[in-house]
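Quick check before the chapter quiz. The format below is the same one you will see on the exam, so make sure you can read both the input and the output lines.
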Amino acid sequence: MSRTTEDLQTAEISGASGWGSGGAVVWVTGISGAGKTTVCDALANLVGDQVPELVRIDGDVVREVFGADLGYKAADREIQIGRVQRLSRVLAEQGKLVLVAALYASDDLLSWNREHLPGYFEVYLEASFDLVRSRDPKGLYRKADAGQMPDVVGIDVPWNAPKQPDLVIDASRPATPREHAISIARRIPRLSRVLTRLSLD
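Here is the expected output.
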């Protein structure tokens, strides 16, 4: 059963003392419009000055880095996530705290993460389709409904919600991205100590 913000106790990330000299990957997933990138940016802004080893990976940026050579069908999305996974592992193995915002998910992909990514911590931003349609910051759902954009996750491409995330955040709660970021940081020993220094614990 998924653990929520209300019932999850501080999660001990694998590795010595909150990753110590090793790295870790914080993987934030949810459907488009749930607020993944916004929450990751808020977390980086919250702790970045205290955690110089923190790096951010956003799926849209990775697409651009690789020359935007993939489409958005399920097969292409799996290749895209594979790139994000391998890049995350390389950085974490060099001692980085890798903060990932990723849309596409499946049981196999998330199981691979747990098996291969150092200090893996999975965050699910849970949002209803009614909520993200009302937000629709990129206009994806409006275009999909009008038949102008195919291969939208949750419409043409199946959405597979994580089954065993380490933390579930209800995106419909009246909370700011900073408050969501604090909820994540509290569950990760290294970042929890940063909150203490910032008097945010």
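If your answer matched, good. DSSP finds eight helices and five strands in the chain.
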